[in-house]
Design brief:
This protein has 43 residues and is mainly alpha-helical. 67% of the residues lie in helices and 0% in strands.
Length: 43
Amino acid sequence: LMLAGTLSGVEMGLALAGIPYSKGGVAEALDYLQFTRKGKVSS
C-alpha cells in the first residue's frame, strides 16, 4: 500500500510539472506485485 501511494505521488508530480511519462505505471506495478506474490511471473 505504501508503494502504491508513493508511485501515485510520483506520477502526480510528473503530471503537474509537465514532464512527459507513460501513464499507468501504478497499475502495472500493482499487477506485477500481485502475480509475483502468487509466483506467476516469469523472468
